[in-house]
Amino acid sequence: MTTTELSPQLDAALAVRWHELNERLADIRRRYPDAALASSLAAEDMLLTHALYAGGSDLEVFTLDTGRLHAETLGVLDAVRERYGREVTVYRPDAGAVERHVAEHGAYAFYESVALRRACCQIRKVAPLKRALAGRGAWITGQRRSQSTTRGELPFEEDDAAFGLYKFNPLAEWDEEEVWSVIRALGIPYNPLHDQGYPSIGCEPCTRAIRPGEDLRAGRWWWESSDSKECGLHAGNRVIPVVARVE
């Protein structure tokens, strides 16, 4: 979708923003032909998926099925298949590792401490991500600076020392309104939980709807402090003292 084609639906500034995003994704493809989009199937990732699929890019899109996702989240996979005729690659955790963790700590141990929650995330998300990224030169995320305190200094691209490859955050400076303006203008499929007060969606027992004025990621691991709300997928994110809010 070109800037010109978007002009009737979007104002000029956002049309330029969309054009720049597509140029950035094309540049990533030129530099790292084996790069892949790690999609949580959330709004930002659906916008990026549309940019890749509708633009004819052959970059892979993959997601992590933790075994505890909402039915609505898994339903997005069907919506993508129907809309674009392409499959999102699904990575799942090692069943044995999950069983051992649950047997030792219980099915809801993540509520007991940050350490146990991160241990669960390590098994269900980080380990599968490592498999998904193995052998690649780069990966792409839908992170934005205004999402949380841990993402306030997010760069467009960075050397990801945690996983040993390059990392791109092409939506880093986009705000919530811009993301949704493009989604609605282009009719991009999205998770229906977003319409029920869930701007950030993870595993079902670890996600709730947010209240007015709360941080966009306040519904993720809501029993923890705001500076701990990462699962290990983005371990290199820096914490800043100001909490990002939605106006």
Task: Summarize the structure in words.
It is a single chain. This protein is of the alpha/beta class and 247 residues long. The protein has one domain: HUPs (Rossmann fold), CATH 3.40.50.620. The protein is built from seven helices and six strands, in the order H-H-E-H-E-H-E-H-H-E-E-E-H. The protein has helices at 3-6, 12-31, 43-54, 71-84, 95-105, 114-133, 176-186, and strands at residues 36-39, 60-64, 89-91, 138-140, 157-160, 165-168. 36% of the residues are buried. Residues 237-247 have low confidence and may be disordered.
Summarize the structure.
By secondary structure, this protein is α/β, with parallel strands linked by helices. The chain has helices spanning 3-6, 12-31, 43-54, 71-84, 95-105, 114-133, 176-186; strands at residues 36-39, 60-64, 89-91, 138-140, 157-160, 165-168.
- At the first level of CATH, what is the class? Alpha Beta
Number of helices: 7
Mean pLDDT: 87
- Biggest sheet strand order reads 3-2-1-4-6-5
Q: Structural class, judged by helices and strands?
A: alpha/beta
Portion in beta strands:
5-15%
Q: Helix-strand pattern, N to C?
A: HHEHEHEHHEEEH
**CATH homologous superfamily heading:** HUPs
In CATH, the topology is named: Rossmann fold
Spans of 5+ residues with little confidence (pLDDT < 50)? 237-247
Indicate the radius of gyration in whole angstroms.
Answer: 18 Å
End-to-end separation: 29 Å
